[in-house]
Design goal:
The chain has 19 helices and four strands. By secondary structure, it is mainly α. The chain has a single domain (2-92, 102-398), classed as P-loop containing nucleotide triphosphate hydrolases (Rossmann fold). It has a four-stranded parallel sheet with strand order 2-1-3-4. Helix 2 crosses helix 4 (65-91) and helix 5 (114-122) crosses helix 17.
Length: 405
C-alpha cells in the first residue's frame, strides 16, 4: 500500500508538471556533487556503463515512480561514495599501494549456498569480509569522526529496515542485516557493473559483452580503502563472494591472481527457480506491467551463460587454486566441509573458529529468521524438464545430484 500511494501521489504531481524524478546523467552527477560538496570523481571509467544504464532505464524499463525514485537513490548514493572515496585516495595515496593477499573467494550459482558459506567463513575473526553497511557506504566521510562510520552504518540500517517493510518477500529470499557479511556486488554497483536487478533486456545484452576489468580493479580499490579505514593488517585475508564471479571469472583472476576459489554446487533445478523468484521480488514493485516472462527468459539465459563461462575459464586456472564443495555436503556435515576448505586455503581450523561458526549457524537471528523462501517454475510459465536439459552440461560436468532424490 505505501508503494501504491507513492505512485499515485507522484503521478498526480507529474500531471501538474511537478515532482518529475530526473534520471539524466547531468542531474545525477550534479546531485552527488551538491550533496557531498566535492567535485572530482578521479577515475571516470564508470561513465560509459552509467550512460548505458540510464538510457535503458529511460527507454526500455518503463519504471513506475517508486522504481524511478529507487533507481535515483541507488545511483546518487554510488556517485557520492565515489566522490568521497576519491577524496580519500587523493589525501592518502598509500591506500592504493596496499595488497590483497590470497583471498578466499566463494563462487557459485545464485541460491547454491554461497551466502551461507561466506557468512560461515566470515565468523572466523582471523579473516576479513565486507559488511552490508560497508557495501552500501564504502567510503569514509571527510571531516567526520572515525571516518563517519556511525553515520554510514545508520543510513544503511534505516534503508534495510524500510526495505524489509516495503518488500518482505525479498527479505525472506535474501535476508540482510546491517552488520552481516554481504557480497561484493554492492561494490560493483559503484561502477554500474553489477548484474542489474531490474532485468532490462537491452542493457543485459550489452552487459554480457562488456569488459569489466576497470570495475573489478575499482572494487579492489574500495576493498583496500575499507581495510585501511578499519586498521586491518595488510596480510589479513579476505573472504569474498558473489554469483557474478561466475560470469567474470577471467577478470576476477586478473585482479586477484593468487585467489583460492571455493566453487559451490547445487541442483540447478533449485538454483534457477530460486533465482527467478528472487529477481521477481526485486523487480515487481518497480514496474506496473507483468514481468515474470521477462525474468524467466533473461535469468534462465544468464544462469546458463554464467555456468558456461566459468567452466571455460576454470580450465585455465591451476588446480591447486580450485576446490569444489556441494550444497548437500555442507547440509550433511558442515564441520567436515569446513575442514576441507581450511586445508585447501592453507589455514588451521581452530577450535575458536569452529565455535564461532557453530554460534552463527545456531543463532536464531541468522539468515533463516524470516522462514522459508517459496518458489516454483509454474509461476513463471517455465518447464522444469526444459530447464534440466538446458543445464545438464553443468550437472554432468560436476556430478551435481538431483536434490531430494
Amino acid at each position: 500500500m505505501p508503494v501504491k500511494h507513492f505512485n499515485r501521489r507522484t503521478r498526480l504531481k507529474n500531471f501538474f508538471g511537478v515532482g518529475k524524478i530526473d534520471l539524466s546523467e547531468t542531474a545525477l552527477l550534479a546531485a552527488a556533487r551538491y550533496e557531498t560538496g566535492l567535485e572530482r570523481f578521479g577515475d571516470e571509467s564508470f561513465l560509459p556503463a552509467l550512460r548505458k544504464l540510464l538510457a535503458s532505464l529511460e527507454n526500455e524499463s518503463r519504471l513506475n515512480p517508486f522504481g524511478r525514485a529507487g533507481a535515483r537513490a541507488r545511483i546518487v548514493r554510488c556517485l557520492k561514495n565515489r566522490l568521497w572515496a576519491n577524496a580519500c585516495f587523493e589525501a592518502h595515496p598509500e591506500i592504493l599501494q596496499r595488497k590483497i593477499i590470497a583471498p578466499i573467494i566463494v563462487v557459485g550459482p545464485g541460491r547454491s549456498g554461497t551466502t551461507r558459506m561466506q557468512r560461515m567463513l566470515a565468523a572466523d575473526v582471523r579473516l576479513q569480509h565486507l559488511k552490508a553497511w560497508e557495501g552500501f557506504n564504502p567510503a569514509p566521510r571527510p571531516g567526520e569522526p572515525d571516518f563517519g562510520k556511525a553515520v554510514r552504518r545508520e543510513e544503511v540500517k534505516n534503508f534495510l529496515d524500510q526495505a524489509e517493510q516495503l518488500n518482505p518477500g525479498a527479505a525472506v529470499a535474501h535476508p540482510m542485516d546491517v552488520d552481516w557479511a554481504e557480497e561484493e556486488i554492492l561494490l560493483l554497483h559503484h561502477s554500474f557493473a553489477a548484474i542489474w536487478s531490474l532485468c532490462l533486456r537491452d542493457h543485459y545484452d550489452s552487459f554480457l559483452a562488456e569488459d569489466r576489468t576497470a570495475a573489478y580493479r575499482y572494487m579492489a580499490d574500495l576493498m583496500k580503502l575499507l581495510s585501511w579505514s578499519r586498521g586491518d593488517a595488510e596480510d589479513k585475508r579476505w573472504v569474498m563472494k558473489t554469483p557474478q564471479y561466475m560470469l567474470d571469472l577471467d577478470v576476477l583472476m586478473k585482479v586477484f591472481p593468487d585467489a583460492k576459489l571455493v566453487f559451490m554446487h547445487r541442483d540447478p533445478l533449485k538454483t534457477v527457480a530460486s533465482t527467478m523468484s528472487l529477481m521477481w521480488h526485486f523487480l515487481v514493485q518497480s514496474i506496473d506491467r507483468p514481468c515474470r516472462a521477462l525474468i524467466r527468459d533473461t535469468w534462465l539465459h544468464l544462469c546458463e551463460q554464467m555456468a558456461r563461462r566459468s567452466m571455460k575459464v576454470r580450465e585455465t586456472i591451476p588446480a591447486e587454486q580450485q576446490l569444489d564443495v556441494y550444497y548437500e555436503e555442507v547440509n550433511r556435515d558442515w564441520r567436515a566441509a569446513m575442514r576441507r576448505i581450511y586445508d585447501f586455503a592453507g589455514l588451521e581450523l581452530t577450535a575458536e573458529a569452529v565455535q564461532a561458526i557453530d554460534a552463527w549457524m545456531s543463532n536464531s537471528e541468522s539468515e533463516n529468521r524470516h522462514g522459508g523462501h517459496k518458489y516454483s517454475y509454474d509461476e513463471f510459465g517455465a518447464d522444469a524438464k526444459e530447464v534440466d536439459q538446458r543445464m545438464m552440461f553443468y550437472r554432468e560436468r560436476y556430478a551435481v545430484p538431483y536434490e531430494g532424490k
